[in-house]
Amino acid sequence: MESNIDPLAEWAVWGHLDRKNDLELILLKGHLLLEKVIETVLERNNIQSYKNFSFYKKILTLEKIEFNENEKKEFIIKSLKNLNKMRNALAHEFSYRIDNDIFELWSENVLKKLKGTKFTKYTYRTKKVHSFSSLTINILELE
Asked: What is the pLDDT of residues 89-125, one digit of tens each?
């Protein structure tokens, strides 16, 4: 159920995260922004019971919705679950290093599998930023 302002949301996520240089902050803020995107899709599908759900429970609720593009939805769900694992590791494991290959591989996989607007040249940091904006538009465009 696409809205005319969905591309603006993609740009807003990119713009908000692009000003950040710290990878930990990009991960944490990106996680929060995608949570709002998921909530938007839940509301568009007349699901109002999510308000006290964790991020993971919101993913599971999104997963239960029937969309036409099942393969795309499955990839998005898997990407969101992996993002949540990284965020939880960062928040709860003292020695977790965000500059590991996991975040890099996650962002490369998202950019390879999902279409999205390329707002700037890809660098180590901007690939991660673009992965959040690409996920944004693809989640919002699920029908």
From this structure: 999 998 888 877 899 999 999 999 999 999 999 999 9
> Which among 80, 72, 143 has a CA at the least distance from the CA of 106?
80
| φ/ψ (deg, to 5) at 39 | -60, -40
**pTM higher than 0.90:** yes
20-36 burial, b if ≥16 CB within 10 A, otherwise e? Answer: beebbebbbbbbebbbe
What φ, ψ does residue 3 adopt, rounded to 5°? Answer: -115, 155
**CA-to-CA distance for 43 and 37, rounded, in angstroms?**
10
Query: Rounded distance, CA 42 to CA 65, Å?
Result: 9
